[in-house]
Design goal:
The chain is of the alpha/beta class and 263 residues long. The protein is 47% helix and 15% strand. The protein is built from ten helices and nine strands. The strands form two sheets. It has a seven-stranded parallel β-sheet, with helices on both faces. Strand 2, helix 2 and strand 3 form a beta-alpha-beta unit. The longest helix is centred in the middle third of the chain and has 29 residues. The chain is globular and about 50 Å long.
């Protein structure tokens, strides 16, 4: 029960990994702050969190800078201290690079990267003032290497690695922790909600995604890793091997990345 009575803010909480994190943390008696664009989904989720020490619903649109600032102001006004921020909100992509407009690249960066660091810049002074804090960043194995149909998505996640690795190095002396989580194929709606070349949700569930690890198991593994203050972890099935191929057998990685069906 390491999270009992700890205050935890989760973005992207209304579905998938964020929802699973919320439910697991509620079972441990955490004080929860849950955010996403979908207020109704958050309200339904809150009803399932009976064991949570408390729960605060704060709507948040990561694409809207003012929404991020308003959410941060509301949270910081209502809480005494904050232990964890789970940067879990984001969107994916399913489109070839040459078919993807620059607007879509901007959108992916705004939601996945700038939304997260905007919130971080509001929270970091609070962590520094209280003398502790832990950022948990949901990246992806595509944030470690590139993959077909994911150019903007992969780039936005690569950017998070660079930013939060730097933040960790700057503030290790201030008791500020960072855990970057790189899931592989997890059974969520991320592929259904991924945007295509036309900027609209594809509405298609990837076969591999549909057969992936459950969001609940992923959340449990994440929470254990965060408890141990792991700096970077990979969660998934055999697709995680691609991380090690890229690192130790790059020729094999490049061959597979160019030939494996991207689903």
């Amino acid at each position: 029960m390491s999270y009992k009575n700890k205050t935890v803010w989760i973005t992207g909480a209304s579905s998938g990994i964020g929802e699973a994190l919320t439910l697991n943390l509620a079972e441990q008696g955490a004080h929860l702050i849950i955010s996403s664009r979908r207020s109704e989904s958050l309200e339904k989720l809150a009803e399932r969190c009976e064991k949570a020490a408390s729960i605060l619903i704060v709507p948040l649109d990561l694409e809207d800078e003012q929404s991020v600032q308003n959410a941060a102001d509301e949270v910081l006004e209502k809480i005494k201290e904050l232990h964890y921020v789970f940067h879990n909100g984001g969107i994916s992509q399913r489109s070839l690079t040459h078919e993807t407009s620059l607007d879509i690249d901007h959108k992916l960066m705004q939601v996945n990267y700038f939304g997260a660091i905007s919130l971080t810049k509001r929270i970091l002074p609070v962590f520094l003032n209280q003398g502790f804090g832990h950022f948990v960043v949901t990246s992806t194995i595509s944030g470690v290497f590139g993959f077909p149909l994911r150019s903007a998505y992969s780039a936005s996640k690569h950017a998070l690695h660079g930013y939060f690795d730097s933040l960790r190095a700057e503030h290790v002396k201030n008791n500020i922790d960072v855990t970057i989580v790189c899931p592989g194929r997890i059974k969520t709606n991320i592929s259904l909600n991924a945007i295509g070349a036309d900027g609209k949700a594809t509405g298609v569930m990837d076969d591999a995604q549909n057969n992936g690890m459950s969001a609940d198991l992923c959340a449990k593994k994440m929470l254990k890793a965060v408890e141990k203050k792991k700096k970077e972890i990979y969660i998934g099935g055999k697709e995680i091997l691609m991380v090690y191929f890229k690192r130790f057998i790059p020729s094999l990685y490049y061959k597979l990345a160019a030939t494996v069906k991207p689903d």
